[in-house]
Design goal:
The protein has helices at 10-76, 83-102, 110-132, 136-207, 211-224, 241-274, 293-299, 308-313, 319-326, 373-419, 422-427, 430-451, 463-475, 498-515, 546-549, 567-577; strands spanning 277-283, 288-291, 331-339, 345-356, 362-371, 459-462, 482-489, 493-496, 519-529, 532-539, 581-588, 591-599. 61% of the residues lie in helices and 15% in strands. It has a 5-stranded antiparallel sheet, with helices on both faces. Strands 7-9-10-12-11 form a 5-stranded mixed sheet, with helices on one face. A two-stranded antiparallel ribbon has the order 6-8. It starts with 9 loop residues before the first helix and ends in a 14-residue tail after the last strand. It is built from 16 helices and 12 strands. The chain has 4 domains: 10-202; 275-371, 2-Layer Sandwich (Beta-Lactamase), CATH 3.30.450.20; 372-452, Helix Hairpins (Orthogonal Bundle); 457-613, Histidine kinase-like ATPase, C-terminal domain (Heat Shock Protein 90), CATH 3.30.565.10. The protein is flat. Its EC number is 2.7.13.3. It catalyses: ATP + protein L-histidine = ADP + protein N-phospho-L-histidine.
């Protein structure tokens, strides 16, 4: 056994290297501790000696300068206004503030402090005595000679003391630099030694690993990356051959199982992706979230559930949808209105159920939604059509029943107006009654027009010319005499009924004039956009309340005191007969914008109406 060569194990080699590196680092730490002690000594010397000395020297220099100025001012003013008391107050305040902030003067500056006190003694003893006996001239002479000479000597001493302290500070700073440089040099040397030692040790340890083990490891790693079915070959080491055979069998089994799982997964995903329903499954146990194609189109391919709290807090068009998606509650058929990235309004019908595993244990939630925007739009159109049909039927019947007795009343009133004297006509308010009869007739005409408008008689015309034809009539009315009109329309031929177009614009102008109380501005713009001719009707009135906008085109909906609520429904009915549309694009304080769209080409027409988006 003594003749056998002892081989270190991999663990022993690593431990030896770690111990050696630890020893080097410990030695380095001892040196750093010593260096820190030296730095502490130097910094303590600076803090306790040089810094206080510099502070007191700076204070005395400023005191010398101010005392010199104070003495000169006292001489010039014949020592008036309590010269000695002011000098004493000035000295005491400066001395007290310095002692409170920095303590007494350092012992090294005691001779300078004594000399400063001698200057003060000269003022308080000799100058004060001369002033007490009224000898200001002798006091001034004493200050200009003895005091100023002593003051200059003290100033020279302060300069010498400052030079000495500054040199000491520079010496201490040089010591700082020396300590740091020595530490850095040792650190660089130690780091180089550790690096070289680690490099040599790593090479020696790695070279001790066998090639068969390295090759087997590479093959196993290759299979583990997903290359199931790959075979390990070229293993000649007897101890590793059984292991290689077992790995090959396992690789084949993994390939068969993986292929079955992939086929089943693809089949299920194809089914989910084919559905027009967005499906979001959240597995809380695994922390996974899955989306089908419809859900990815809405949420985005890079959707992350960790972003849900931030998304739910946003004030955007998707806020309500994010809140439902992040909800922990179970719900069915919740309707939510959203605005997508294209600024299009959509309506989703959302539901959420529990996600359970094969043991019927809840492991997450299943959120699914469907876009019912088109369905809602169709339902609204059907409801609107049914309402118009019902209202039209009732209006037609009522109008016919009212028109006959109204004609009789109108005839008798006109007969009375012709036969009665003027005083009797005024007493019975015949003119007012006839005016109201005329207004009732107008309402009946609107009701009949809403119930069954005549088919448009198409002509090729320029809308600008049609609008200009009604402008003289409009501008002469009392409601519009203080309203400014702006007309800027592209001259594009349009197939339309001129009489119905005039009535549409007349209704819009009348509505705007009444909303603005007869004061303001109305602008009408028109231009071609692809296969549409778009007219924008703008006024600077107070706007339409939000509560009224949704029912704006419903019959008998009005915000005016004497309005019938039939003008806009009639305009909409006429635009529908022209295969066009009219809708409210914007309404706020100072701006109300209606948009009218006329088709320029034959074929099916889809209105660019934001209410149906």
């Amino acid at each position: 056994m003594d003749g056998e060569k002892r081989t270190w194990s991999l663990r022993a080699k690593i431990m030896a290297v770690l111990l050696l590196l630890t020893g080097l680092l410990v030695s380095l730490s001892f040196f750093f501790i010593q260096s820190l002690g030296e730095i502490h000594d130097v910094s303590e010397s600076i803090t306790e000696d040089q810094v206080p000395e510099l502070v007191w020297l700076s204070h005395w220099e400023s005191q010398v300068l101010m005392k010199e100025q104070y003495i000169q001012m006292g001489i010039q003013t014949d020592f008036c206004c309590g010269f000695i008391e002011g000098y004493e107050s000035f000295r005491d305040e400066g001395e007290a503030s310095m002692r409170e902030a920095y303590g007494p003067p350092p012992a090294q500056l005691e001779p300078a402090n004594v000399q400063l006190q001698r200057l003060d003694f000269l003022v308080f003893n000799q100058v004060s005595g001369l002033l007490d006996i009224g000898n200001e001239a002798e006091a001034a002479s004493l200050l200009e000679t003895d005091y100023m000479d002593e003051l200059e000597t003290f100033r020279v001493r302060l300069a010498a003391e400052r030079t000495q302290v500054t040199e000491m500070l520079e010496t201490q700073q040089g010591r700082f630099t020396s300590i740091i440089q020595e530490s850095l040099d040792l650190l660089v040397l130690t780091a180089a030694a550790v690096f070289v030692l680690a490099l040599v040790a790593a090479y020696r340890i790695s070279s001790g690993l066998t090639r068969p083990v390295n090759r087997l490891q590479r093959e196993l790693h290759y299979i583990a990356e997903g290359n199931y079915g790959e075979q390990i070959s070229g293993v000649n080491q007897p101890e590793l051959i059984p292991l290689a055979h077992s790995v090959n069998k396992l690789s084949e089994q993994l390939k068969r199982s993986f292929d079955l799982l992939i086929l089943d997964k693809m089949y299920r995903e194809q089914i989910l992706d084919s559905l027009p329903v967005g499906v979001v499954t959240s597995d809380e146990k695994r922390g996974e979230i899955r989306l089908n194609k419809t859900a990815r189109d809405v949420l985005g391919a890079g959707f992350n559930k960790d972003e849900l709290p931030e998304l739910a807090a946003r004030q955007d068009g998707m806020q309500n949808f994010w809140k439902l998606l992040s909800s922990k509650e179970i719900f069915q058929n919740e309707k939510v209105f959203v605005t997508n990235e294209k600024e299009e309004e959509q309506i989703f019908l959302c539901s959420q159920a529990e996600l359970v595993n094969e043991h019927r244990v809840t492991i997450g939630k299943l959120f699914y939604f469907i876009d019912i925007t088109d369905t809602e739009a169709l339902e609204q159109q059907v409801q609107h059509t049914e309402k118009l049909a019902l209202v039209g039927s009732l209006a037609a019947g009522a109008a016919h029943e009212i028109r006959n007795p109204l004609a009789v009343i109108d005839g008798f009133l006109k007969l009375m107006q012709q036969s009665l004297p003027e005083e009797e006509r005024e007493r019975f308010r015949l003119e007012l009654l006839l005016k109201e009869i005329t207004r009732i007739n107008g309402i009946i005409e609107d009701m009949l027009l809403l119930a069954k408008p005549r088919d448009p008689s198409y002509e090729e015309l320029i809308l600008e010319d049609v609008v200009e034809e009604i402008m003289p009539l409009v501008e002469r009315t009392a409601e519009t005499k203080n309203i400014a009109f702006t007309l800027d329309m592209e001259r594009v031929p349009v197939q339309a009924d001129p009489d119905q177009i005039k009535q549409i614009f007349h209704n819009l102008i009348r509505n705007s004039a009444e909303a603005m109380d007869g004061k303001g501005k109305i602008s009408i713009f028109g231009q071609r956009r692809r296969n549409l001719y778009c007219v924008e009707f703008v006024d600077d009135g107070p706007g339409i309340p939000d509560s009224t906008q949704e029912q704006l085109f419903s019959p008998f909906t009005t915000t005016k005191k004497n309005g019938t609520g039939l003008g806009l429904p009639i305009a909409e009915r006429m635009m529908d007969n022209h295969q066009g549309s009219i809708y409210l694009m914007e309404s706020q304080q100072g701006k109300t914008l209606f948009c009218l769209e006329f088709p320029l080409e034959e074929g099916p027409y889809e209105a660019d109406d934001p209410r149906l988006r």
